[in-house]
Amino acid sequence: MAYSADQAAFQVQERLKALYRLVHDIHDERQQSEHNLNNIEKAHEKISAEERVSPQYQQQLKNLYTAAVADAEREEELIRKALTKVNEIRAIRNERRIQARNAGNKETIRRGALMKMLLSSAQTLPLWVGKPGEKAPPLCGAIPMEASYIAKPGDMVAALVKGAEEEENWILAEVVSYNSTTGRYEVDDIDEEQKDRHVLSRRRVMPLPLMRANPETDHAALFPKNSVVMALYPQTTCFYKALVNALPSSATEEYEVLFDDPSYAEGYSPPLPVAQRYVLAIRDRKGHSHS
């Protein structure tokens, strides 16, 4: 949906107001939850002191645990509503940015600022939080995209492009458009110093993850240790072949990877941190995936 500047500002403000109310509701619900949890703890202390569980205590505990579960479910619902508002705000701001770019008002970003922006983008990528037993969806962490998936304008991708000397490299790029008739993407090099636009077939474009995987709940959505991957080399906008040396142990941590580097005796660089968003399945020069 296209927004004017005033419409976008109004829509963002409305969602911020809703988010403010939800945060207060979450706080109130958490206080109620803590009250019930304290009562459960006190009940267990009494049972321990008496060294027996009477039918009265059994019923009391059952009621308290039922209430605690209901509290947790209400809190979860409120948090998910709040996250939805955050994602809606992100989508509106991204839409305005794309409109500005299409109108020729693309802001020039200096190298240092670009690197900070890429890091922030990776750190604030939405975290997948599924319900019990629910598997992580495509484009969450290491989960590949569905075969029919088409990246949207504004999405970040890895793109296999030819350089000045005809060498081919995977670069970080932003989708401008997709032509369903020709099956080709139009993408912009994210590096402001290049300012190149490329028209590429689908096999030369790899969408970046849309969500982070939580290592504590969705370990299967991460690349295993010793996996060969493509990773964004720190402080650059290019992807290179690397080996996963260590997995993130929490939602805020990064992978530790070893980049192919013949200048070292082992053939690999020292361990370097790379965010989940910038670690992808390895592809060859023709754009074919490999495990």
TrEMBL record:
* One GO cellular component term: SAGA complex
What is the protein's given name? SAGA-associated factor 29
Instruction: From the UniProt record, list the coiled-coil ranges.
Output: 23-50
Q: Where in the cell is it found?
A: Nucleus
* Main location, first listed in the record: nucleus
The record places domain SGF29 C-terminal at 147-288
Query: Pfam families of this UniProt entry?
Result: SGF29_Tudor
Q: Is the keyword Transcription assigned to this protein?
A: yes
Q: What's the domain of life for this entry?
A: Eukaryota
UniProt-listed PANTHER family: SAGA-ASSOCIATED FACTOR 29 (PTHR21539:SF0)
Keywords for this protein: Coiled coil, Nucleus, Transcription, Transcription regulation
